[in-house]
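User: Structure please.
Assistant: Input sequence and predicted structure:
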Amino acid sequence: SMGSAATEAIPAIQIHLKDRDVSVQLKAFHALGRVKAAAEPSLAMLKKMTRIEWNDADGAYPTLMAIQEAGPKAGFMVPLILQAIGQDPPDYLRCVLVRTLGHAGTSDPQAAQAMFHALGKELVWNDSSGNRDGTLRREAVAALAKLDAKNERIVAVLADRLSDPDPYARNLAALTLGRSGPAGKTAVPALAKSLMRPGAAT
């Protein structure tokens, strides 16, 4: 426990969960989780879950942190993560869910395919702030980067991200495409165009 002072700060932290800046929402979510300091469920406990209670930030935090820590061992949680993403959670929680998907969904081919399907949807690339904040898209590109960069469908999605308004998302997409080998040939025009952007790294 962090003491009474931290407990008293909870209402102020919760206000920031509704901030217009998704990155501020994310920081508030992690701060709230640390203040509450709930025990992370074990793998055995995760296996008994039938859904992720994403509408309860206090309850979602330890669950998602446990999945991230377990990595591919928690691949069985991918369907529940996808279910939560599809239920239109707040942007900050969608960011954490996508990040968690990247940790858990990379070892099982079926899980990886499901992960790609989720990250290929417009639901992931758009946020309620009208795309002004790139945090969610960065998380989605980072999650895709954990998959097989030689997959042509992944190459196509990453090539599209080369024109993303967010520089981090663009740079990570370009770095991942650099590992794609022959499958990345279709992305060459997009890569060339991205290098012509003002301020592009060379």
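Residues 98 and 140 are 6 Å apart (CA to CA).
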